[in-house]
Amino acid sequence: MATRTAILYTGSLLSSAFGGLVGAGIEYGLDGARGLYSWQWLFLIEGTVTVVVSLGSIFVLPDFPSNTAWLTAEERALAIHRLHAHSGTVDEERGPLLEGLKMAALDYKVWLLTLIVILKTSAGAVTQFIPTLVNTFHFSRVQTLLMTAPPFIFAAIVALVVSVSSDKLGERCLHLIVPLAFALIGFIIAAITESLAPRYFSLFLALGGVYGCYDITYAWMSSTIPRPIEKRSSAFAIANMVGNIAQVYSPYMYPKSSGPRYLPAMIANSGFVIVSIVCCAILYLCLRRENEILEAAQMHGQDEEDARSDVSKSRSQERVVSVEAMDSGFRYML
């Protein structure tokens, strides 16, 4: 799950990297061509490619295993079996959407993960100002655009490595905390020095740390809120909606008056990362306790009513882990 999510999100990182390279090329060769400024050419070229690829993806992206037209019957059965092994059971029947939203809104795990998302998005907003930060090195516009690419490429590589490791080891918490710790070091370096080399190095640590584990959060949410489908979908919607609130206030963290160190922003980003690490640790402890209850329920052969009672006492939402899932050995991924 983390690897697939990483592939999706590295697309965004690589677009930022190659966007800088494309922008440098357009700035150098197309500015003023046919009466258009370089930024107009950038919008036309990137916008056209995006629209064409988006229309084509409608016919390629799958919906659910049971109704994906380009899968064979055997492949559908295998996909459903994998889902069953992952979450203990499979929900093919759709329930009320509002009920799923209510279940997600009342689950503390959803809000812990959402808090991690908004904090990391707040710290990750530094990407919007990397050209501004690199510009403090006093290079030309083309050189500035070229120098924005390597940190994004590095972050994409880190994201893939961390995600593959997380999936192979079946672990989420440390694969979030360790990269965030490196991001914290990056923000601290950026805050305390104005030297070119250390500040540029700090961008690699900050981007590699924040975005190197960004997809792990969503993979952890998927395994923590495995069912029903309506609840899981609502959980992702809540995380994305609340997380993007960071885009409202983050631009005001980098006023020109605070350059070139942007000390207030770097201090704030450090705080965001620290609180994210604390939230990861809290969620880890909560899920470990949930697993202990599920383990005890399975070992002692409790009936359905007793098992649900124990899960309720641990503040799990009803149907997050059904008795079927207990019987199949479902455990929350830590």
TrEMBL record:
Membrane protein topology class: Multi-pass membrane protein
Alphabetized GO MF terms: transmembrane transporter activity
Any one Gene Ontology cellular component term annotated for this protein: membrane
Ranges of residues in domain Major facilitator superfamily (MFS) profile: 1-288
InterPro entries assigned to the protein according to its UniProt record, in alphabetical order: MFS, MFS_dom, MFS_trans_sf
Residues annotated as transmembrane: 7-26, 38-61, 110-130, 142-162, 174-193, 199-221, 233-254, 266-287
Broad class of where this protein is predominantly found: membrane
Name of the molecule in the record: MFS transporter
Lineage, uppermost ranks: Eukaryota, Fungi, Dikarya, Ascomycota, Pezizomycotina
